[in-house]
Amino acid sequence: MTTQSVKFRVYRYDPDKDAKPYMQDISVDVDTTTERKLLDALVKLKVVDESLSFRRSCREGVCGSDAMNINGKNGLACITDIDTLKQPIEVRPLPGLPVIRDLIVDMTQFFKQYHSIKPYVINDSPAPDRERLQSQEDRKELDGLYECILCACCSTACPSFWWNPDKFVGPAGLLAAYRFIADTRDEATSARLDNLEDPYRLFRCHSIMNCVDVCPKELNPTKAIGKIKDLMVKRIA
Amino acid sequence: MVNRHVVGAHYGLRDWLVQRVTAVIMLAYTVGVVAFILFANGASFEAWQALFACTWVKIVTTITIIALLWHAWVGVRDIWMDYIQHIGVKLTMHVLTLLWLLASLIYMVKVVWGVL
Q: A96 CA to chain B: closest CA distance, Å?
């Protein structure tokens, strides 16, 4: 067993006790053979100071609960190697969303935008005896879209989402929107494009690609947004 | 509280397209002017004046000026839309921007069509 001390600067805020947020300097010993991810160290940190609050669940980059701002960049604590981080590791909640406590943010606005694009297949044709089938080529269109875990790293790294979270759908929502537009089983393409044709809902994206930079699943919302714009142009041309 | 359904305003695509098309017009014009200066001895006052005395140059320049101002309108309006939340302030900025661009248009057209 090799022990290493990891230094942290953690954002702390408990609205019941603190007048305003502050940064807490704290360090913790981790076993470098088994505890190599940032989440491992945070879990240990909670043993040192049990009042520290953060969300986590699957600890393997699938559930998207432990998204946070790590040394200035959004990411998932569970798949970020401690070795790759400069110490003290500065950990803050996702930017732009209201803080509930410490690293826990209120995701209501994020999910409101996600729901506004109707994230499910709409098909009013009578259902076939078995499932609605897709060809392998049609199914391939969904690669790079369906993998999104809704961790909100992208939308909370997007300045357009910071300024207009109530009006701009945000990269995560728009990636999901294109996932259903691209789905050959979906019949609501035109209605979906109508829903997005709006100077705020879609066109607040200025393609700065912060979303692509931070996505822990290496997805490309900017490309999906470009494809939505392409389809809108094709519709009028 | 009214439970509103969020839908698109059904515009925005045109402005986005306009920004791209006007950019292409400005690029083509810039390439033309640079080529004239480099290859047609266009750096002198006489050559410059002779070029702008042609009616077709005036027309092309006017189209480019309109492209420039339209491009600026979409871009500057985008900035107000991004950063200004207060409706009244936002509308005021939109109107001031439009007035400024309109004044620029009149002055630029006057200058270009004033070359004899």
A: 14
Residue B16 contacts A, CB cutoff 8 Å: yes
β-bridge pairing A89-92 and A3-12? parallel
B87 touches chain A (CB under 8 A): no
Structural domain for B51, as ranges: 13-114
Instruction: State how far the alpha carbon of B61 is from the alpha carbons of A38, A94, B40, B50, B65, in Å.
Output: 59, 49, 18, 14, 6
ipTM here: 0.83
CB contact under 8 A, B7 and A194: yes
Q: Are residues B13 and A201, on separate chains, in Cβ contact within 8 Å?
A: no
pLDDT per position as a tens digit, A134-158: 999 999 999 999 999 999 999 999 9
The answer to whether the CB atoms of B9 and A197 lie below 8 A apart is yes
Beta bridge partners of A105: A99
CB-CB: which of A195, A206, A233 is closest to B7? A195
Judge whether A174 and A228 are in contact, CB under 8 Å: yes
Report pLDDT digits (tens) over B4-63: 666 778 888 999 999 999 999 999 999 999 999 888 876 788 888 899 999 999 999 999
Amino acid at residue number A112: K
Token pair for residue A209?
């690609």
Domain count, chain B: 1
Tens of pLDDT, residues A8-44: 999 999 999 999 999 999 999 999 889 999 999 999 9
CB atoms within 10 A of CB A57: 11
Q: Is residue B55 part of a domain?
A: yes
Domains of chain A, start order: 3-105 (3.10.20.30), 108-236 (1.10.1060.10)
Q: Is residue B28 part of a domain?
A: yes
